[in-house]
Write a structure and sequence with these properties.
Elements lengths: L2 H4 L1 H4 L3 H7 L4 E5 L4 E3 L7 E15 L5 E7 L19 E14 H9 L2 H27 L2 H16 L3 E2 L3 H8 L3 H13 L3 E4 L2 E4 L2 H7 L3 H11 L9
Antiparallel strand pairs: 1-5, 2-5, 3-4, 3-5, 6-8, 7-8
Helix pairs in contact: 5-10, 6-8, 6-9, 7-8
Length: 237
């Protein structure tokens, strides 16, 4: 794998910044369900996904959690929850298994301090991520679950470049903050319309255009913001 090709944020860096960063990167596989860090923990590593998806989860008082952002090969995990070497304000869970290039957080902070273009690239990414978080909060409060599920499946497909998503109904329910039975019911509705197909531990997108039509407008809004910031259009809310 080539970190500077497979991770789209790394791919935007200038050659001089790539050269400075490359010796500090190591590849690490991650499995579905792995917690990269939890709320209150020190963040000592920056993760650049090459394949796979990581969810940022907001935890409520009663212990329930809901996904407020997801990061795949378009970005990096570990710098958007507080200071680079601060303590996490969110929980980072690996949603779909993959591989990441990793860098010590203190080292990454030093490299950022020496490069204005790297800091600008990070600012563009975090601005797009903030738009995703804000739109997700509004979406979760206002839109029907079938619309939210369609949006979530589209965004997850964008980050995997695959029509087939290795996800259980429990996985999806956890990300959306609803009961598994509710996801099963709404998933059956989308399947009955020919938009998706489901099996044990997987979901397949059959008609992407129709699924976009079934999703709420949040998907297109965040995709547009990220495109304006120079990020890939196929990585969205």
């Amino acid at each position: 794998m080539d970190a500077f090709t497979d991770n789209l944020w790394l791919a935007t860096l200038r050659p001089v910044d790539r050269k400075r960063l490359a010796p500090h990167l190591t590849e690490r596989p991650f499995d579905t369900g792995l917690m990269l860090y939890d709320i209150g923990e020190a963040v000592d590593c920056i993760w650049f996904p090459l394949h796979g998806v990581v969810s940022l989860m907001t935890v409520l008082d009663e212990g329930h959690a809901v996904e407020t952002a997801a990061i795949g090969r378009e970005g990096l995990v570990g710098v958007t929850c507080g200071p680079l070497n601060g303590r996490a304000a969110t929980r980072a869970i690996c949603q779909i298994e993959g591989v990441a290039a990793c860098c010590d957080a203190d080292t990454f902070a030093e490299l950022l301090a020496e490069s204005a273009p790297m800091r600008a690239a990070l600012s563009r990414f975090t601005e797009g991520l903030m738009a995703q978080v804000q739109q997700s909060a509004a979406c979760n409060a206002q839109h029907r679950l079938d619309q939210r599920l369609a949006r979530w499946l589209l965004a997850t497909q964008d980050r995997t470049d695959s029509a087939r998503l290795e996800l259980t109904q429990a996985d999806v329910a956890g990300m959306l903050g609803v009961r598994r039975a509710t996801v099963s019911e709404v998933g059956a509705e989308l399947e009955g319309r020919g938009l998706i197909r489901r099996g044990r531990g997987w979901v397949e997108v059959l008609d992407r255009d129709a699924l976009e039509g079934a999703a709420c407008g949040c998907y297109g809004l965040v995709r547009g913001v990220m495109a304006d910031l120079g990020q890939p259009r196929r990585v969205a809310a």
